[in-house]
Amino acid sequence: MNPGKKLFPYFQPIVCAASGYIIGYEALARQYNEKGQIISAGELFSSRDIPAEQLIEWDRFIRRQALQQFSKLNYSGYLTLNISAAWIDYVSDINALPTIQMIDELNIDRSRIIIEITESKGDLDKLIEVVRIYKLHGLKVAIDDFGAGFSQLERVMAILPDIIKLDMQLFQKATKGGIASDIVHLLTRLGKRAGCRIVCEGVETDDEFLFGLTCGAQYMQGYLFSPAEAEFKDATHYREQINLLRNKFLQKTMIKERDKIQYIDKVKGLIGLLQKALEADFNLNELSIHPFEKSGVLRFYLCNNIGDQISSNFNFAGGKWLEESRKVGFNWSWRPYFYQLLAIEEAGDSYRFVISELYRDFNTELLCKTLSLRLDAERILLIDIMAEWT
Predict the structure, then answer these.
(1) How many Cα atoms sit within 13 Å of 84 on the Cβ side?
(2) Nearest to 237 by CA among 77, 11, 27, 13
(3) Residue 34's CATH number
(4) Is 86 exposed, middle or buried (0-12, 13-18, 19+ CB in 10 A)?
(5) 275 in a domain, yes or no?
(6) Residue 262 counted as domain residue
(7) Which of 133, 261, 325, 352 gives 20 to 30 Å between its CA and that of 14?
(8) Helix, strand or coil, per DSSP, at residue 261
(9) pLDDT digit string (tens) for 208-253?
(10) Domain range spanning residue 312?
């Protein structure tokens, strides 16, 4: 039997963490196997044995079915349609795009349709032009699998999508911490700065949902809520579940923030001891009796008012201070924690300290932050501390 005759769309909900509502659905291709079971059609569409023209024909057949079902709903949300970037190369007339024609034939509000660009292949110049046409006609555009490779970064810069969907494998790895977590946080910050809405795909557990919230992602999609199904649900279907998840996030985050405040207070006390010792000739052995290491203080050093490092690095490890002079003479005036401190002082506030963004320390590979504060009229004290509480 012709596989195309057994193809049809299922719909997976996308939920909003802020409202608790289902805000849209992604249409996904499904088919019946030889046993009559419903399975994903992904393997069929990734086959190299079927000509691209045939796959495009089947894809448009599924797309039309999805739009027909969507048009019958008394529903104000979105429908996301996947379109392969590689298949855009086969469009003969970009001013007569098939999807726009289908939408108009079915009298669907164009602003409720999101075109999700999948795959990294395809002519970028043609993709840019097709996306321009979509946007000109009022459709929104999403990039799928963001974070899967450099080509996706290039594509984001080129077409400025409305929505970014994080690569599912990267997102799930990121929930376990490590460099994947750092990358996802960086990508979500990049997306938000570009004015894109962030969607986390493949959300299967409470912890993955909570991690998505820490990344600032407002929209979630995955088996935690529902697989793709034949029918659309009431927009409030998951609202109680999402309320419980938000409360769980708030409670866990409050505990972390409390621990963070307690940690900072402890570090402040040690900084006071350090400031007092540095006012005159200091004795490193006397300082080592204080719990610097247990409090996550890694090192300190001094700079002058133009950013030149005028002291050795004093590294604390193994219960003692170690002096390392290699960076004497380096200039750190270009680091935000240095020039921000000077700007605060220019504004008339001389009693604050500045905390840098999170970074991974080259020597210890620990996540750290740098604190900068005024020691006296000529010297600025900089202190590197562990930042695992962040």
Answers:
(1) 19
(2) 13
(3) 3.20.20.450
(4) middle
(5) yes
(6) no
(7) 133
(8) helix
(9) 999 999 988 899 999 999 999 999 999 999 999 999 999 999 999 9
(10) 270-386
